[in-house]
Amino acid sequence: MSPEEFPEEERWVDDEAGPVVRPYVMTYGRTQPTRGRFDLISLVVSIRRPPAAEAGLHPEHIKIIRLCRDPMSVAEIAAHLDLPAGTIRVLIGDLLDRRYVEVQAPPAPRPNMHDEQLYKAVLDGLRAL
Amino acid sequence: MDSGRSDGASKRRKMPTAVKVLIAGGFGAGKTTMVGAVSETKPLRTEEILTDQGVGIDDLSGVEAKDTTTVAMDFGRITISDDYVLYLFGTPGQRRFWFVWDELSLGALGAVVLADTRRLADCFPSVDYFERRGTPFIVAVNCFEGARRFELDEVRMALKINEEIPMLLCDARKRNSGKQVLITLVQHAMATNAKKRAEGATAH
Predict the structure, then answer these.
(1) Is residue B10 part of a domain?
(2) pTM surpassing 0.90?
(3) Disulfide engineering: B94 pairs with which of A53, A62, B125, B130, CB 3.0-4.6 Å?
(4) Which one of A24, A34, A119 would you mutate to disrupt binding with B, by most B Cβ within 10 Å of its Cβ?
(5) ipTM > 0.85?
(6) Tell me, what CATH number does B187's domain have?
(7) pLDDT profile of chain A (129 residues), mean per 10
């Protein structure tokens, strides 16, 4: 189901729709993003200015574009927008499709396969805290 | 995967690398306290909604009747440098949410199991989980006021923790203590990683 099938005047996205229903309405009932499943620490960064308004984009989409001027993880975006991570993943998928953001997955999703340099950098950083 | 670099993003902006560490342990062991003490902001909270898809894989007794269940996770961020960002995730309640644990531990540098000496048995499931999964972990014994002071050796015996696993006392409320715990973990993870690599090299 594409967002375009929904006319603009459908205003189901108000707060009155309730906290449970709302995330699903915002994603037009989708629970999976258009591509892949973003990790909670996948980093999102905006690559162009948010539009004033754009068909198919909700205020939450715009908020994400604004929030991600500096790279921010999926988990942080979810926390800041107070929405479930699954909802945020769908919205990020939309923004990726429309080339508003870029997403970088975390390195090597296998345990014990990180390179030496990564450990050293993290250690140095922690010691300097 | 490196989708950022593949389509020329690096020319516009260099993205840092995100890594994560898990803070596990029983209810009330001080997970969120430690996340908050060492993070640069107060702990944030994110929720995962588990649908039917996630149910039934493991022991999810008690939730079969529900279509969805929500799991909240507290987490924090430490900006290590321009190149690295470290996220600390407090793992959600044990047993019912292995599905979320699997996702959280995927690619994690390692895990801290926080032990509360008043309820030592509460951290058994976490220790078991990381042992089975092969995630590098250490045990940090949170020293609560009024709790009996245990010797680390006593705790090690009670939890049947292998000698190779570092253990230390900590105060989850203190930034410096949490920092020391994280340093111990990353050193241990680095050594474990080096050892596995060496083993892998000799196997060929």
Answers:
(1) no
(2) no
(3) B125
(4) A119
(5) no
(6) 3.40.50.300
(7) 43 48 69 77 95 88 96 96 93 95 81 74 94
